[in-house]
Amino acid sequence: MMKKIIAVFLAVVMLCCASISMVSALTPAEEAKLQFNEDGTFKILTLADIQDDALLLSVTAKFIDAAVASEQPDLIILTGDNIAGHLTASAAKSATAIRKFMDILEPYGIPVAMVFGNHDDDGGKMSKEDQMKVYEEYSCFIGFDEGEALDGVGTYNVPIFSSTDDSDIVFNCWLFDSGSYDENGGYDRVRQSQIDWYKAKSAELKAANGGEVVPSLAFQHIIVPEIFEALDEVSVGTPGAISKYGKFYALPETAAEGSFMGEPPCPSAVNDGQFDALVEGGDVLGIVTGHDHSNSFIVPYKGIDLINSPTCGFQSYGMTEVRGIRVFTLDESNPASYETYIVKYQDLFADDAMAMLMHDFFAFFSNFIAVFSAFFGSLSGMFSF
Protein backbone atom coordinates (compact mmCIF):
# COMPACT_ATOMS: atom_id res chain seq x y z
CA MET A 1 0.00 0.00 0.00
CA MET A 2 2.81 2.37 0.96
CA LYS A 3 4.61 1.63 -2.31
CA LYS A 4 1.48 2.60 -4.27
CA ILE A 5 1.15 5.84 -2.35
CA ILE A 6 4.80 6.68 -2.99
CA ALA A 7 4.43 5.81 -6.68
CA VAL A 8 1.37 8.04 -7.04
CA PHE A 9 3.15 10.84 -5.18
CA LEU A 10 6.21 10.58 -7.44
CA ALA A 11 3.97 10.58 -10.51
CA VAL A 12 2.24 13.76 -9.35
CA VAL A 13 5.60 15.41 -8.63
CA MET A 14 6.90 14.47 -12.08
CA LEU A 15 3.73 15.78 -13.71
CA CYS A 16 4.07 19.09 -11.84
CA CYS A 17 7.72 19.37 -12.81
CA ALA A 18 6.84 18.67 -16.44
CA SER A 19 4.11 21.33 -16.34
CA ILE A 20 6.51 23.86 -14.82
CA SER A 21 9.09 22.98 -17.46
CA MET A 22 6.54 23.50 -20.25
CA VAL A 23 5.52 26.89 -18.85
CA SER A 24 9.12 28.02 -18.39
CA ALA A 25 9.90 26.94 -21.97
CA LEU A 26 7.52 29.56 -23.34
CA THR A 27 9.16 32.69 -24.70
CA PRO A 28 7.88 36.14 -23.67
CA ALA A 29 6.29 36.46 -27.12
CA GLU A 30 4.46 33.17 -26.68
CA GLU A 31 3.38 34.06 -23.15
CA ALA A 32 1.88 37.32 -24.46
CA LYS A 33 -0.79 35.30 -26.29
CA LEU A 34 -1.49 37.89 -28.98
CA GLN A 35 -4.85 37.27 -30.66
CA PHE A 36 -6.83 38.57 -33.60
CA ASN A 37 -9.55 41.00 -32.59
CA GLU A 38 -13.22 40.04 -32.46
CA ASP A 39 -13.70 41.55 -35.92
CA GLY A 40 -10.95 39.27 -37.27
CA THR A 41 -8.33 41.98 -37.78
CA PHE A 42 -4.83 42.43 -36.40
CA LYS A 43 -2.68 45.52 -36.99
CA ILE A 44 1.12 45.75 -36.84
CA LEU A 45 2.90 49.10 -36.76
CA THR A 46 6.61 49.08 -37.63
CA LEU A 47 9.19 51.70 -36.70
CA ALA A 48 12.25 51.70 -38.94
CA ASP A 49 15.51 53.49 -38.25
CA ILE A 50 14.67 55.86 -35.41
CA GLN A 51 18.48 56.05 -35.24
CA ASP A 52 18.83 58.88 -32.73
CA ASP A 53 20.97 59.52 -29.67
CA ALA A 54 20.10 60.21 -26.03
CA LEU A 55 18.25 63.43 -26.88
CA LEU A 56 15.72 62.09 -29.46
CA LEU A 57 14.54 64.92 -31.67
CA SER A 58 11.16 66.22 -30.60
CA VAL A 59 9.88 65.98 -34.18
CA THR A 60 10.59 62.22 -34.20
CA ALA A 61 9.07 61.72 -30.75
CA LYS A 62 5.95 63.63 -31.80
CA PHE A 63 5.63 61.59 -35.00
CA ILE A 64 5.92 58.22 -33.23
CA ASP A 65 3.46 59.21 -30.52
CA ALA A 66 0.90 60.55 -32.99
CA ALA A 67 1.18 57.52 -35.29
CA VAL A 68 0.64 55.03 -32.46
CA ALA A 69 -2.28 57.07 -31.10
CA SER A 70 -3.84 57.35 -34.54
CA GLU A 71 -3.35 53.75 -35.70
CA GLN A 72 -3.95 51.94 -32.38
CA PRO A 73 -2.01 48.85 -33.48
CA ASP A 74 -2.11 45.45 -31.81
CA LEU A 75 1.66 45.01 -32.08
CA ILE A 76 4.60 47.37 -32.57
CA ILE A 77 7.80 46.09 -34.18
CA LEU A 78 11.07 48.05 -34.28
CA THR A 79 13.06 46.94 -37.33
CA GLY A 80 16.54 47.97 -36.25
CA ASP A 81 18.85 50.95 -36.01
CA ASN A 82 16.60 51.87 -33.13
CA ILE A 83 19.42 54.02 -31.77
CA ALA A 84 22.57 55.48 -33.31
CA GLY A 85 25.23 53.79 -31.21
CA HIS A 86 27.97 55.76 -32.93
CA LEU A 87 26.40 59.03 -31.75
CA THR A 88 25.98 58.11 -28.09
CA ALA A 89 28.85 59.07 -25.78
CA SER A 90 28.62 56.09 -23.43
CA ALA A 91 26.69 52.96 -22.48
CA ALA A 92 24.54 55.10 -20.19
CA LYS A 93 23.68 57.40 -23.10
CA SER A 94 22.82 54.39 -25.28
CA ALA A 95 20.45 53.19 -22.57
CA THR A 96 18.90 56.65 -22.38
CA ALA A 97 18.42 56.67 -26.17
CA ILE A 98 16.41 53.44 -25.91
CA ARG A 99 14.34 54.71 -23.00
CA LYS A 100 13.43 57.89 -24.89
CA PHE A 101 11.20 56.06 -27.37
CA MET A 102 10.25 53.16 -25.10
CA ASP A 103 8.88 55.72 -22.62
CA ILE A 104 6.58 56.89 -25.42
CA LEU A 105 5.36 53.36 -26.20
CA GLU A 106 4.98 51.94 -22.68
CA PRO A 107 1.87 53.93 -21.64
CA TYR A 108 -0.11 52.55 -24.58
CA GLY A 109 0.14 49.01 -23.21
CA ILE A 110 0.65 47.66 -26.74
CA PRO A 111 3.09 44.72 -27.05
CA VAL A 112 6.44 45.77 -28.51
CA ALA A 113 8.95 43.52 -30.26
CA MET A 114 12.17 44.51 -31.94
CA VAL A 115 15.27 43.47 -33.87
CA PHE A 116 18.65 45.13 -33.89
CA GLY A 117 20.31 46.92 -36.80
CA ASN A 118 23.92 47.63 -37.65
CA HIS A 119 23.94 50.99 -35.86
CA ASP A 120 22.49 49.89 -32.52
CA ASP A 121 25.84 48.68 -31.21
CA ASP A 122 27.93 50.71 -33.66
CA GLY A 123 30.85 52.33 -31.85
CA GLY A 124 30.99 49.68 -29.13
CA LYS A 125 29.41 51.84 -26.42
CA MET A 126 26.87 49.20 -25.38
CA SER A 127 26.52 45.58 -26.49
CA LYS A 128 23.29 44.22 -27.91
CA GLU A 129 23.02 41.93 -24.90
CA ASP A 130 23.09 44.90 -22.53
CA GLN A 131 20.71 46.87 -24.73
CA MET A 132 18.27 43.96 -24.62
CA LYS A 133 18.26 44.23 -20.82
CA VAL A 134 17.10 47.85 -21.15
CA TYR A 135 14.18 46.81 -23.38
CA GLU A 136 13.29 44.11 -20.86
CA GLU A 137 12.74 46.81 -18.21
CA TYR A 138 9.44 47.61 -19.98
CA SER A 139 6.31 45.59 -19.35
CA CYS A 140 5.16 46.08 -22.95
CA PHE A 141 8.27 44.42 -24.39
CA ILE A 142 7.87 40.81 -25.53
CA GLY A 143 11.26 40.17 -27.14
CA PHE A 144 14.20 38.40 -25.55
CA ASP A 145 17.85 37.42 -25.89
CA GLU A 146 17.89 33.76 -26.91
CA GLY A 147 21.48 33.33 -25.65
CA GLU A 148 24.45 31.79 -27.40
CA ALA A 149 22.45 29.12 -29.22
CA LEU A 150 22.07 31.37 -32.25
CA ASP A 151 24.16 34.02 -33.94
CA GLY A 152 23.20 37.57 -33.03
CA VAL A 153 20.89 38.75 -30.29
CA GLY A 154 17.11 38.65 -30.51
CA THR A 155 16.05 36.05 -33.06
CA TYR A 156 12.60 34.73 -32.13
CA ASN A 157 9.03 34.40 -33.36
CA VAL A 158 5.79 36.08 -32.30
CA PRO A 159 2.71 33.87 -32.83
CA ILE A 160 -0.71 35.45 -33.32
CA PHE A 161 -3.60 33.26 -32.17
CA SER A 162 -7.19 32.92 -33.29
CA SER A 163 -9.73 35.40 -31.96
CA THR A 164 -11.71 32.51 -30.52
CA ASP A 165 -9.01 29.99 -29.57
CA ASP A 166 -5.77 31.04 -27.86
CA SER A 167 -4.19 27.69 -28.70
CA ASP A 168 -4.67 28.03 -32.47
CA ILE A 169 -1.85 29.94 -34.19
CA VAL A 170 -3.27 31.69 -37.25
CA PHE A 171 -0.32 33.91 -38.17
CA ASN A 172 3.33 34.19 -37.21
CA CYS A 173 6.00 36.90 -37.17
CA TRP A 174 9.64 35.91 -37.57
CA LEU A 175 12.17 38.33 -36.08
CA PHE A 176 15.80 37.93 -37.18
CA ASP A 177 18.88 39.78 -36.01
CA SER A 178 20.58 40.44 -39.35
CA GLY A 179 23.78 41.46 -37.58
CA SER A 180 25.92 44.55 -37.85
CA TYR A 181 29.09 44.13 -39.93
CA ASP A 182 30.68 40.99 -41.30
CA GLU A 183 34.25 39.74 -41.12
CA ASN A 184 35.15 41.81 -44.19
CA GLY A 185 33.73 45.08 -42.85
CA GLY A 186 30.61 44.97 -45.00
CA TYR A 187 27.03 44.70 -43.82
CA ASP A 188 26.14 41.47 -42.06
CA ARG A 189 23.36 38.96 -42.70
CA VAL A 190 21.20 36.30 -41.08
CA ARG A 191 23.56 33.41 -40.35
CA GLN A 192 23.34 29.64 -40.74
CA SER A 193 22.44 28.91 -37.10
CA GLN A 194 19.45 31.26 -37.40
CA ILE A 195 18.40 29.68 -40.69
CA ASP A 196 18.55 26.21 -39.11
CA TRP A 197 16.44 27.50 -36.19
CA TYR A 198 13.87 28.91 -38.63
CA LYS A 199 13.62 25.59 -40.49
CA ALA A 200 13.06 23.64 -37.28
CA LYS A 201 10.57 26.12 -35.80
CA SER A 202 8.68 26.48 -39.08
CA ALA A 203 8.34 22.70 -39.31
CA GLU A 204 7.13 22.62 -35.69
CA LEU A 205 4.45 25.23 -36.40
CA LYS A 206 3.42 23.40 -39.55
CA ALA A 207 3.05 20.10 -37.73
CA ALA A 208 0.94 21.74 -35.01
CA ASN A 209 -1.24 23.28 -37.74
CA GLY A 210 -2.32 19.96 -39.23
CA GLY A 211 0.43 19.89 -41.81
CA GLU A 212 -0.38 23.33 -43.22
CA VAL A 213 2.17 26.15 -43.06
CA VAL A 214 1.37 29.08 -40.80
CA PRO A 215 1.33 32.30 -42.90
CA SER A 216 4.06 34.64 -41.71
CA LEU A 217 5.97 37.87 -42.17
CA ALA A 218 9.69 38.11 -41.46
CA PHE A 219 11.13 41.26 -39.88
CA GLN A 220 14.83 42.16 -39.95
CA HIS A 221 17.00 45.19 -40.52
CA ILE A 222 19.20 44.42 -43.53
CA ILE A 223 17.60 43.41 -46.82
CA VAL A 224 18.53 40.11 -48.50
CA PRO A 225 21.00 40.07 -51.45
CA GLU A 226 18.28 38.70 -53.73
CA ILE A 227 16.85 42.21 -54.01
CA PHE A 228 19.11 42.76 -57.01
CA GLU A 229 17.67 39.69 -58.71
CA ALA A 230 14.19 41.09 -58.07
CA LEU A 231 14.97 44.54 -59.49
CA ASP A 232 15.22 45.22 -63.22
CA GLU A 233 18.71 45.79 -64.59
CA VAL A 234 18.43 48.82 -66.89
CA SER A 235 20.57 51.08 -69.02
CA VAL A 236 22.21 54.30 -67.89
CA GLY A 237 19.79 57.22 -67.80
CA THR A 238 16.66 55.15 -67.15
CA PRO A 239 14.28 57.30 -65.06
CA GLY A 240 14.28 56.26 -61.42
CA ALA A 241 17.30 54.01 -61.81
CA ILE A 242 19.97 53.66 -59.13
CA SER A 243 23.55 52.49 -59.49
CA LYS A 244 25.07 49.55 -57.61
CA TYR A 245 27.94 47.16 -58.33
CA GLY A 246 28.68 49.08 -61.52
CA LYS A 247 25.20 48.40 -62.90
CA PHE A 248 21.88 50.28 -62.98
CA TYR A 249 18.67 49.02 -61.45
CA ALA A 250 15.03 50.12 -61.37
CA LEU A 251 11.88 48.89 -59.70
CA PRO A 252 10.07 46.28 -61.83
CA GLU A 253 6.54 46.72 -63.13
CA THR A 254 5.43 44.18 -60.54
CA ALA A 255 6.39 46.53 -57.68
CA ALA A 256 3.42 47.67 -55.62
CA GLU A 257 1.82 51.01 -56.38
CA GLY A 258 3.57 53.84 -54.57
CA SER A 259 6.91 52.03 -54.37
CA PHE A 260 9.89 54.36 -54.34
CA MET A 261 13.63 53.78 -54.51
CA GLY A 262 15.76 56.79 -53.58
CA GLU A 263 19.03 54.96 -52.96
CA PRO A 264 20.69 51.63 -53.75
CA PRO A 265 19.66 48.80 -51.41
CA CYS A 266 22.56 47.75 -49.18
CA PRO A 267 22.48 44.01 -48.42
CA SER A 268 25.38 41.87 -47.29
CA ALA A 269 27.92 40.86 -49.91
CA VAL A 270 27.77 37.33 -48.45
CA ASN A 271 24.75 35.07 -48.74
CA ASP A 272 24.15 32.24 -46.26
CA GLY A 273 20.95 31.17 -48.01
CA GLN A 274 18.28 32.75 -45.84
CA PHE A 275 16.01 33.74 -48.73
CA ASP A 276 16.19 30.29 -50.33
CA ALA A 277 15.30 28.72 -46.97
CA LEU A 278 12.25 31.00 -46.62
CA VAL A 279 11.13 30.17 -50.17
CA GLU A 280 11.49 26.47 -49.40
CA GLY A 281 9.62 26.88 -46.11
CA GLY A 282 6.65 28.30 -48.00
CA ASP A 283 5.24 30.20 -45.04
CA VAL A 284 6.73 33.68 -45.43
CA LEU A 285 4.61 36.20 -47.36
CA GLY A 286 7.14 39.02 -47.12
CA ILE A 287 10.47 40.08 -45.64
CA VAL A 288 10.16 43.49 -43.97
CA THR A 289 13.35 45.55 -43.71
CA GLY A 290 14.57 49.08 -43.04
CA HIS A 291 18.24 50.09 -43.28
CA ASP A 292 17.92 52.02 -46.55
CA HIS A 293 16.19 55.19 -45.33
CA SER A 294 15.09 56.56 -48.69
CA ASN A 295 13.51 53.35 -49.99
CA SER A 296 9.84 52.50 -49.63
CA PHE A 297 8.83 49.60 -51.84
CA ILE A 298 7.22 46.18 -52.18
CA VAL A 299 8.83 43.96 -54.82
CA PRO A 300 7.55 40.38 -55.28
CA TYR A 301 10.16 37.71 -55.99
CA LYS A 302 9.76 33.93 -56.02
CA GLY A 303 6.56 34.12 -54.00
CA ILE A 304 7.93 36.43 -51.30
CA ASP A 305 7.46 40.20 -51.16
CA LEU A 306 10.63 42.18 -50.45
CA ILE A 307 9.27 45.07 -48.38
CA ASN A 308 11.41 48.07 -47.45
CA SER A 309 10.22 50.71 -45.00
CA PRO A 310 11.53 54.29 -44.93
CA THR A 311 13.04 55.90 -41.85
CA CYS A 312 10.67 57.34 -39.28
CA GLY A 313 13.44 59.36 -37.62
CA PHE A 314 14.79 62.81 -38.42
CA GLN A 315 18.29 62.58 -36.97
CA SER A 316 19.68 60.78 -40.02
CA TYR A 317 19.21 61.14 -43.77
CA GLY A 318 15.91 60.33 -45.46
CA MET A 319 13.78 61.48 -48.37
CA THR A 320 11.14 63.98 -47.26
CA GLU A 321 8.47 62.53 -49.54
CA VAL A 322 8.79 58.97 -48.19
CA ARG A 323 9.72 59.49 -44.54
CA GLY A 324 7.07 57.57 -42.63
CA ILE A 325 5.87 54.57 -40.65
CA ARG A 326 4.71 51.30 -42.24
CA VAL A 327 1.54 49.60 -41.01
CA PHE A 328 0.28 46.08 -41.77
CA THR A 329 -3.28 44.83 -41.39
CA LEU A 330 -4.05 41.12 -41.24
CA ASP A 331 -7.38 39.35 -41.75
CA GLU A 332 -8.06 36.17 -39.77
CA SER A 333 -10.39 34.90 -42.50
CA ASN A 334 -7.60 35.22 -45.07
CA PRO A 335 -4.26 35.02 -43.23
CA ALA A 336 -2.30 34.18 -46.37
CA SER A 337 -2.54 37.83 -47.43
CA TYR A 338 -1.90 41.23 -45.90
CA GLU A 339 -2.44 44.90 -46.56
CA THR A 340 0.17 47.56 -45.89
CA TYR A 341 0.48 51.32 -46.14
CA ILE A 342 2.78 54.13 -45.07
CA VAL A 343 1.69 56.77 -42.58
CA LYS A 344 3.65 59.88 -43.52
CA TYR A 345 4.48 62.76 -41.24
CA GLN A 346 2.45 65.01 -43.51
CA ASP A 347 -0.60 62.78 -43.04
CA LEU A 348 -0.67 63.65 -39.35
CA PHE A 349 0.65 67.19 -39.25
CA ALA A 350 -0.15 68.83 -42.59
CA ASP A 351 -2.45 71.31 -40.81
CA ASP A 352 0.18 72.10 -38.17
CA ALA A 353 2.39 74.81 -39.65
CA MET A 354 5.02 74.67 -36.91
CA ALA A 355 5.21 70.88 -37.04
CA MET A 356 5.63 70.92 -40.81
CA LEU A 357 8.31 73.58 -40.49
CA MET A 358 10.19 71.32 -38.09
CA HIS A 359 9.69 68.41 -40.47
CA ASP A 360 11.05 70.31 -43.46
CA PHE A 361 13.98 71.72 -41.49
CA PHE A 362 15.15 68.39 -40.12
CA ALA A 363 14.54 66.62 -43.42
CA PHE A 364 16.61 69.24 -45.24
CA PHE A 365 19.32 69.17 -42.58
CA SER A 366 19.64 65.37 -42.53
CA ASN A 367 19.80 65.20 -46.34
CA PHE A 368 22.36 68.03 -46.39
CA ILE A 369 24.55 66.10 -43.97
CA ALA A 370 24.21 62.95 -46.10
CA VAL A 371 25.25 64.82 -49.28
CA PHE A 372 28.05 66.61 -47.41
CA SER A 373 29.38 63.33 -46.03
CA ALA A 374 29.16 61.60 -49.40
CA PHE A 375 31.00 64.47 -51.11
CA PHE A 376 33.90 64.53 -48.69
CA GLY A 377 33.94 60.75 -48.64
CA SER A 378 34.50 60.78 -52.39
CA LEU A 379 37.28 63.34 -51.98
CA SER A 380 38.99 61.24 -49.36
CA GLY A 381 38.97 58.38 -51.86
CA MET A 382 40.69 60.53 -54.46
CA PHE A 383 43.50 61.79 -52.26
CA SER A 384 45.75 60.24 -49.65
CA PHE A 385 45.53 61.88 -46.24
What does this entry look like structurally?
The longest helix is centred in the last third of the chain and has 30 residues, at 353-382. α3 (58-71) runs parallel beside α4 and α6 runs parallel beside α8 (274-281). The protein is built from ten helices and 16 strands. The protein has 385 residues and is an alpha/beta fold. It has helices at 2-24, 28-31, 58-71, 91-105, 128-135, 192-208, 227-230, 274-281, 345-349, 353-382, and strands at residues 34-35, 41-47, 75-79, 112-115, 156-161, 169-175, 216-219, 232-234, 242-244, 247-250, 260-261, 284-289, 295-301, 304-308, 324-331, 339-344. It has a single domain, classed as 4-Layer Sandwich (Purple Acid Phosphatase, chain A, domain 2). The chain has an eight-stranded mixed β-sheet with strand order 1-5-6-7-12-14-13-11.
Helical residues, percent: 25-40%
Spatial separation of the terminal alpha carbons: 90 Å
Our count of helices gives 10
Low-confidence stretches: 6-24, 377-385
Shape: globular
Q: Could you write a compact summary of the structure shown?
A:
The protein is α/β, with parallel strands linked by helices and 385 residues long. It is built from 10 helices and 16 strands. The protein is 33% helix and 21% strand.
Supply database-style keywords:
alpha/beta; 33% helix; 385 residues; globular; disordered C terminus; 10 helices; 8-stranded mixed sheet
Please outline the helices and strands:
Blueprint: H1 2-24, H2 28-31, E1 34-35, E2 41-47, H3 58-71, E3 75-79, H4 91-105, E4 112-115, H5 128-135, E5 156-161, E6 169-175, H6 192-208, E7 216-219, H7 227-230, E8 232-234, E9 242-244, E10 247-250, E11 260-261, H8 274-281, E12 284-289, E13 295-301, E14 304-308, E15 324-331, E16 339-344, H9 345-349, H10 353-382
Parallel strand pairs: 1-5, 2-3, 3-4, 6-7, 7-12, 12-14
Antiparallel strand pairs: 2-15, 5-6, 8-10, 9-10, 11-13, 13-14, 15-16
Helix pairs in contact: 3-4, 6-8
